[in-house]
Amino acid sequence: MAIDLKPQSAFAVAQQRLERAAQVMNLPDDSLRMLKEVKRELTVHFPVQLDNGSVHVYTGYRVQHNISRGPAKGGLRYAADLTLDMVKALAMLMTWKCAVVGIPYGGAKGGVTVDPKALSKNELEHLTRRYATEIALLIGPERDVPAPDLGTNAQVMAWIMDTISMHTGHSVTASVTGKPVDVGGSQGRHESPGRGITYLTLEGLKYLRIDDETPTVAVQGFGHVGASTARLLQDAGLRVVAVGDSKGAVYNSKGLDLAALREHRQYRGGVSGFKKADDLSPRELLELPVTVLVPAARENQITAENASRLQARLITEAANAAIAPDADDILHDKGIFVLPDILANSGGVVVSYFEWVQDLQAFFWEEEEINTKLHHVITRAFYEVLHLSVNKRLNMRTAAYALAVQRVANANSVRGIYP
Ligand code: GLU
Asked: Does the CB atom of residue 249 touch ligand 1 within 6 A?
């Protein structure tokens, strides 16, 4: 039999995972067909004048996969390798993410094919404002609400909110989440992805009854999400023994001084060469004998090639699609408990939801209240997925997908088909 060695499209992988979930829930074919495609995909090409006076034409996207449960929701990614296929896959993932934690949104994703680090602040602002204008026909508090993702941040969200507001003639703070607190952002939004990952990891450890030792942790990725996750897990009493970034990784079995490591990274541009720790390659970090592994960097880090060498007991999949589909069964057979991406990294969008609610009601909550509400939503979702996983003998990813897909299918079905 000929083996197809073509790299699989990210959207095809997302569709396969949907099909598997649909199968275990006995979803009718009509229902599956409606969920397999994205609802809208907008591609825009637009010019930006660079600081040297030349004009560059960029390509951007906004894709809405499903809006049956509420407005479209999802981040904007600025990355040099961004494609429409990837944005479609990530938009579908957002639909499941919002459904699995039970917040009233559909799923969307967008972004621009650009390396944001290669632009000056002035160029980044012009690119952002023009891109926001191009996709403005889709955006709004009741329609589609963007947020930060890889390569974008609170400042970029402030520019987008300002651009939409200028077009509308008044401030529309609820059109975007992940904004700075000065312009309708929420307390706790910045740290919410790391906080969600931490709450879930602690629930996972409790379920696995790993309470007789100080659990050790390796975190791959020391960007915004990885760094705050490492710190929050350490604050919760776990021992962070390894941290890696795109260039290297460091390991100390007694635990790392994370504040000193952050300073070192700022000064040296990477974690490698940190005193009081041994250097490792980013791949070696994944194979360490730790209790918890948190891949918080990029997609496809754990594949059929390295999955059998992993030694962690629990993996919290912080980065979207960090585990390739061909690795799932290997990890399951090894008895490694996986908290899948749509559950593990939902903290960001849950607090985005709180931000949107606060903007709409113009009444803001204290950080403690936000964190308590986040804990409640995440823990409820964890146990709902766990029950399905135990009752139907599914791994946690399939259970999370199945729960989410069923909720969206129910919304489609109860609404019926127009006209
Ligand atoms: N980009 C984040 C994610 O993928 C946050 C999305 C949001 O807050 O809308 O979950």
From this structure: no
Residue matched to tokens 């989440």: 177
Give percent of the chain above pLDDT 70: 98
Position in ligand 1 atom list of the atom nearest CA 148: 1
Q: What digits encode the pLDDT tens for the residues 7-36?
A: 679 999 999 999 999 999 999 999 999 999
Under the banding of pLDDT at 50, 70 and 90, the label for residue 1 is very low
- Per CATH, the number for 192-344 is 3.40.50.720
Separation of 273 CA from ligand 1 center, angstroms? 33
Q: For residues 377 and 396, give the distance between their C-alpha atoms in angstroms, rounded to a whole number.
A: 17
- What does the DSSP assignment read for 39-86? SEEEEEEEEEE-TTS-EEEEEEEEEEEE-SSSSEEEEEEEETT--HHH
User: 131 pLDDT band (50/70/90 cuts)?
Assistant: very high
For the CA of 353, the closest atom of ligand 1 is 8
What is the Å distance from ligand 1's center to 101 Cα?
13
Every domain range in the chain assigned CATH 3.40.50.720: 192-344
Nearest-CA residue for ligand 1 atom 8 is 349
- Mean pLDDT, the chain, integer: 96
Interior angle at CA 112, CA 110 and CA 116, nearest 5:
125
Q: What is the mean pLDDT of residues 289-312?
A: 96
- The pLDDT tens digits for 319-332 are 999 999 999 999 99
Q: Whose CA is nearest to atom 4 of ligand 1?
A: 75
Question: Quick one: pLDDT at residue 212?
Answer: 63
Sheet containing 107-113, strands listed edge to edge, beginning at the edge strand earlier in sequence: 40-49, 55-66, 107-113, 72-79, 144-148
In the predicted model, is pLDDT for residue 6 greater than 70? no
- Give the CATH superfamily of 36-175: Leucine Dehydrogenase, chain A, domain 1 (3.40.50.10860)
Q: Which of 94, 144, 197, 225 is the pocket-test mutation for ligand 1 (most atoms within 8 Å of CB)?
A: 94
Is 109 among the catalytic positions? yes
- Residues carrying CATH 3.40.50.10860, the chain: 36-175
Which is the catalytic residue, given 109, 179, 206, 247? 109
Which runs of E-coded beta strand occur in 119-213? 144-148
Token representation of residue 404: 């989410």
